[in-house]
């Protein structure tokens, strides 16, 4: 019998351990996904601010800590988001190497962020890594919490709210515990590794994934049904249309909790940066107006069909006016909490209070203006960076207030110039919204 023709023989056997590029598909997985892209862009901003500060003013330890914390926490949220998306995909186990590549890529970018952070510490005048390790502990803790229960990703916003507080917490941690704080992320990393080895599809993950895209990961979708929250959201309609009653919930809750925080801090004689946190929350709320609008762009047609507007021009006009009403509420909340804080803190004078309110005002206005002009998810991600840019601006000025007893006059001139810029951009953005029709962005 003749042997089989060479053409019918397999030319070569595929090796079981053939090399496979673990970063294949990185662009599609991380950079084309709005959830992870938003956090990665913020992390990139943190790296840039860290490098700039080390080059220009390496003695600004507070700024470097804040920028490094921004990078670590943003990377943590991006990794947690990818894990949630992975567990929401029913086909993840059927696609060859998909799960493995996500885990390798997530571990790699996390390791790179840690490496860059340690390099920054070596190049700067930081004498302790306790603050960095506390940021790492918060970030890894958030990832582990989301692996256990995906619904906890709804609290991603709270992770960023601890950004200005964390450096202050180090002062209240005993020195002995601060020296061993590095063991916390090591333990959390071990727990995360164990959880990933038993990683499987989660029935709640898909709901969290879709809800997160539509609501901007705001907290409390059930609590937001309170009548008071709904009334405030109606007052802010149509800007509140894409977020829903959660907009009113965040505004009222932030006012109440901030007032309680100021009174509690005065009672225990502690210095908590409540004004700093409140300012960032207000700016974030304004930025999320257009973040959720872009995520739920198909819902714009439903909004347009409501019998409340006279055509597209009327819809755009009403949306612009509702943004101004939102800014008015933000200014009122900031002013009330600043006045309350001034009763217990002699450093908060009239000029300091005006600086805090002005910073929140121009950052909120710029977030709304840039958001209205956004035509892609990348544009909206860039507008979200105003939250952290204003955090740097406000934190550096308040550090100067604490160390020198006054704020440099340059900050006041900067506030004035940025307020003028905000007004100009708000007017320009007035007719940019839905420029190509409500069926698009």
Structure notes:
The protein has helices at 26-31, 34-56, 61-88, 98-123, 130-148, 156-161, 166-169, 175-179, 183-197, 205-215, 227-235, 246-268, 274-295, 299-305, 311-342, 350-372, 377-384, 386-404, 409-429. It has 441 residues and is an all-alpha fold. Helix 3 runs antiparallel to helix 18, helix 13 runs parallel beside helix 16 (350-372) and helix 16 (350-372) runs parallel beside helix 19. The longest helix is centred in the last third of the chain and has 32 residues, at 311-342. This is ABC transporter permease. It comes from Shewanella electrodiphila.
Describe the structure concisely for a colleague.
By secondary structure, the protein is mostly helical. The chain has helices at residues 26-31, 34-56, 61-88, 98-123, 130-148, 156-161, 166-169, 175-179, 183-197, 205-215, 227-235, 246-268, 274-295, 299-305, 311-342, 350-372, 377-384, 386-404, 409-429.
């Amino acid at each position: 019998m003749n042997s089989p023709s060479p053409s019918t023989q397999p030319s070569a056997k595929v090796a079981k351990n053939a090399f496979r590029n673990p970063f294949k598909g990185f662009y599609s997985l991380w950079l084309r996904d709005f959830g992870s892209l938003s956090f990665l862009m913020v992390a990139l901003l943190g790296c840039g601010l860290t490098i700039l500060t080390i080059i220009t003013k390496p003695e600004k330890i507070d700024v470097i800590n804040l920028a490094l914390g921004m990078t670590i926490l943003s990377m943590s949220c991006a990794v947690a988001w990818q894990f949630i998306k992975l567990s929401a995909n029913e086909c993840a186990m059927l696609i060859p190497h998909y799960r493995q590549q996500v885990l390798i890529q997530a571990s790699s970018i996390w390791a790179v962020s840690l490496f860059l952070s340690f390099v920054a510490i070596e190049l700067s005048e930081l004498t302790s890594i306790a603050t960095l390790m506390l940021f790492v502990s918060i970030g890894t803790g958030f990832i582990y919490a989301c692996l256990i229960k995906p619904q906890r990703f709804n609290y991603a916003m709270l992770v960023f709210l601890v950004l200005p507080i964390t450096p202050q917490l180090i002062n209240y941690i005993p020195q002995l515990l601060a020296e061993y704080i590095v063991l916390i992320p090591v333990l959390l990393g071990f727990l995360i590794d164990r959880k990933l080895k038993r990683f499987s599809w989660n029935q709640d993950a898909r709901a969290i994934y879709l809800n997160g895209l539509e609501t901007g990961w705001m907290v409390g979708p059930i609590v937001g049904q309170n009548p008071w929250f709904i009334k405030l959201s109606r007052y802010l309609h149509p800007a509140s249309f894409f977020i829903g009653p959660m907009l009113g919930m965040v505004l009222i809750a932030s006012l109440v909790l901030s007032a309680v925080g100021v009174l509690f801090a005065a009672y225990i004689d502690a210095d908590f940066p409540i004004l700093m946190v409140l300012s960032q929350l207000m700016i974030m709320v304004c930025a999320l107006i257009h973040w959720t609008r872009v995520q739920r762009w198909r819902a714009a047609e439903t909004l347009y069909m409501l019998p409340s507007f006279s055509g597209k021009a009327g819809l755009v006009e009403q949306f612009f006016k509702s943004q101004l009403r939102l800014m008015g509420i933000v200014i009122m909340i900031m002013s009330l909490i600043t006045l309350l804080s001034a009763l217990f803190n002699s450093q908060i004078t009239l000029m300091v209070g005006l600086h805090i309110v002005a910073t929140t005002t121009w950052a909120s206005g710029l977030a709304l203006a840039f958001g209205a002009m956004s035509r892609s998810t990348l544009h909206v991600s860039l507008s979200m960076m105003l939250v952290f840019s204003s955090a740097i601006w406000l934190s550096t000025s308040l550090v100067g207030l604490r160390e020198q007893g006054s704020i440099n006059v340059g900050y006041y001139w900067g506030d004035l110039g940025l307020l003028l810029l905000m007004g100009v951009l708000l007017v320009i953005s007035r007719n940019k919204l839905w420029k190509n029709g409500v069926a698009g962005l």
